[in-house]
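Hi, here's the filled form for the chain we discussed.

Project: internal
Contact: R.S.
Residues: 677
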Amino acid sequence: MATVHAVVTDDEVEQALAAVTNSLPGGGEERPGQLQMALAVSRAIGEARHLIVQAGTGTGKSLAYLVPAVLSGQKVVVATATKALQDQLAEKDLPQVKAALGAPFTFAVLKGRSNYICRQRVAEVGSGGIQPELTGQGGRESGEVEVEVEVAAEGDDRVDHGEAPEGLVEEVQSLLAWSGTTPSGDRGHLPFEPSAKAWGMVSVGPRECPGAFNCPSGSRCFAEAARERAAASDVVVVNTHLYGAHLASGRAVLPEHDVVVFDETHELEEVMTSSLGVEVTPGRFRALALAARPLVDEREADLVASLLATGEQLGSLLADRVGTRVLHHDAEPPVDDSTLAELLGRAADATGRVTDALRRGGVQRSLLAEGGADPDRLSRKTRAITAASHLTDDLHRFVSPHDGEVAWVDGTRRNVRLRLSPIDVGPVLSAALWGEITAVMTSATVPPSLVERVGLEEFETDELDVGSPFDYRAHALLYVARHLPDRRAPEAEAALHEELALLIAAAGGRTLALFTSRRATEEAAEALAADLPYAVWQQGDLPKGRLLEEFARDETSCLFATLGFWQGVDIPGRALSLVTLDRLPFPRPDDPLLQARRARAGGRAFSLVDLPRAATLLAQGSGRLIRTSEDRGVVAVLDSRLATASYRGVLLGALPPMRRTVERGEVEAFLREALAG
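And the returned structure, exactly as it came back:
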């Protein structure tokens, strides 16, 4: 990263930012933090220095990095942690910048391959009929469908029988019809949400796609067209998982670029941990067996049967180890993983033999009466070989893991996954990214010690906190229920429920009650819902989007939810006047990945592993309250440790600068005044 580019002047940045904000509805508003951030981003890009910016809610951070990115004239990739932010950038912010500046820059959105309908799969389903696909003659199992490069939970409901699930045929027919009219093939542009089974029949993932040159439909591929648009664009918006896949592939997924912006950078470490690792599920064996069965010579069918049996054995063995670390020799007490290691070796051998059989087999059946090759059959065969090769490679990663990697069993007994990830992503990012690309990292909540955790210590990196334009001291109150008993005490749950009921009454409903576990969520809802004079929604009652719509629509309603709602919830106005958090969100002590990180950190484990995560999540949960300059309300932490523990300063330092109290009477008075206004 030695190249230094010409720096755009501060005046140019300020004028361009003003032009964009003045074009917003109502003429925008003055945000000093936004300008401060934009100037810092411009200097970082021009001087090829990394930059970390904490930009509180309301800063307008998207425009603060987009404007200098466009002015720089460099190729920029923006990686977001959420689809909502990706859509906001592509559909609102970037068009706004382009229109206001009159700048001739181009931009594109690029998603993971499985987010685009596959023309070759459509051709195969259309020519061969839907029923053979439903009986296991092609496609993936529902659990092997990948969206945004995140592997969906695998189901046990295999599609290996002769009858189609109700409505599936009609759903696939709708997808086939849509494929002929869509200009993009992007799943996100569908007028309906397809089931995993239906989408899996008309899409391919990166582990099975043979590439455009090896596919009969490669010249018309939607995913390849999206990649071409991205390569020709000045700004490319991607999902952070896809950027991780880009690094894991040796930087072969995304076009070459000069700058990367990681928005919602508090997710960066965990996303990279996932993306730079591998995952093996029993479903991958089943899907490969279903794909290979009609493609190998009949005399080698036993190889496919052996592959399927090996996958089932692996699933059974892993089901008893869910939530535990595996394949490590320094466990206390020692764990005998020889059976698992031996089974993984046999699995790798089985997939290798099936790969060879696929290359050899079925030649006679691949010829048409006219004597030419059947392109659909050859395409299926190439995809199966690609999937088998990827599975073999991933299994070898588990057979011979590196010292800096941790393997563990994730999921549930029904949906089990064997995962392997780097314990520390810093060395990988340091070697593959920080020395090559200028990075801007920003979030409303930047985790403590981020430089150290992502391997930036040896690189020139500036850090900046531009605050928030909101008047937190006047508009928000932080209440810590210091009088509540330790959560381990027998009376703790009843006391928490009583406290929560009193707070909800003071707020007149209007409460987002956040919990650190599903059990605590359900127990609180069961204990309080019948006696509260307000509608009480519980996570799972409706899909998340619909649930938030209902919560916002009924101003006095309450929503009880767990960790999935601690971030990404934006409900401005009086409908959300109280956010409660049942306890400090420290990670589970038995999490296998974090156990490995704690062991590596030694005596600094709590400060380097547990405390930063708790601080970040606490700040994210508290951040659900104030979303606009007009919002008023209370954040109530029902965990006395925030008022008494020696580490409370780190946690409080991560929160917005709200007034604080330990007296419930002050909370009731504050809410009366806020709601009266």
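Let me know if anything looks off before we file it.
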